[in-house]
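From the pipeline queue, job 12 of 40. The input is one protein chain; the requested action is below.

Action: predict structure.
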Amino acid sequence: MDGLPPSSQSAAAAPPTATTMHRFWLLTSAAAVSKLGNTFLHLAMPWTLLAHTGSPLLAALSLGVQNLPYIISPLLGGLIDRYERRRVFMVSELVQGVAVALVPLLLMGQQIAWTLVLLLVVGCASVVSNLTSDFSLVPALSPPDRLAEAYSRYASVTSVARCVGPAIAGGVLATVGPSWALWFDAITFLATAAVALTLPVQPAAPASAGFLSMLSEGFRGFRRLPGVVRLTVVLALYNLGAGSMPAIVVVLAKDAWHWSSGQAGLVLAAGAAGSALGAWLGPRVLAKGSTTRRVGCWFGVCAVACALLLPPWPALTVVGFFVLMAGEGGINVTTNEYRFRAIPNALVGRVNSIMRAFIVGATVLSSVVLGWSVSLSEQLLRLAPAVIGAAAAFAVWAAVRPDTSTASEPPVLRSEEQRA
């Protein structure tokens, strides 16, 4: 990925006012509360399914099912570009809240299959919500010349919430059970939907073309961005190996280490703390270097972290998990900025959803691969897929040698109103 000079930044974005920044922090705070609630879901679901079924594979699939909708996300991306984005965000949060609230009722009736269906619905709404907030709402409320810093702040605050969340979730899970943990998560979605009402209107792209034509236009735009295509391939390769690590760590804590839910929550909290640290460091590490070097640096961190997972010592595994999440935090901040600047506003939903179809689709496969390998007796074999995937992603990215004449500038595709 190439560096981003100031000349490539969007000129259409207006300078932020005090009201705009207030709304940015309001959205960030609401998202942090929602992420905190999500940690309840991420801990309660694999823990509860493992207790109900005794299957590590089903426990890992609880995360994989939520990520499965990313495979069809190009279809969902068309909805984001066709309709007013603030409203799309609000509806997606409401759908997640209702679906999560129904999960405990199905678990009480031992309806495991229907529980997975509801998690699939949650995943669909989450795709829409995340794409809309990350690549439309956050940039619209951020200073155009400080977008990396805004993404860093947004990611750091939400990661801190994910850091605090598992510790709280572990205590709630141990004290009052998974039902109350999930109902708390549902309430956070409703709160975020209410905040959406205070945000400025985000106009939809012109929708004169039919849905299939819009979808085709999205794929054409994606192909015209070689740097974005390359990034998509490398991130998918990485996620194929390590994409399901949070759920796998929960399985290890319960099944292999025989830890309590509170201790498992603390492990997830350590990972979220690492993610917050990586997000904060994202725009600061190699700040004057090209984006190619910055992304490569964070992939290298992830590869080293995965190697720390291999020895059969739980303490070192937790350290490796912390470093791995820090690497992912740095990658997310760096690549989000690149994607915003390289993708035209009219194609934000479609191109980003195409990217995530490959990136998160690999996470679904990772839940199957790691769900199988984690049941093996040797620690070296349990997490070997994560090491292989991270090392391969780093090697492929490091092998890229961009043309030196354009090494400081990415392929930028902007709409006419953004060039004005």
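Job complete. The chain has a mean pLDDT of 77.
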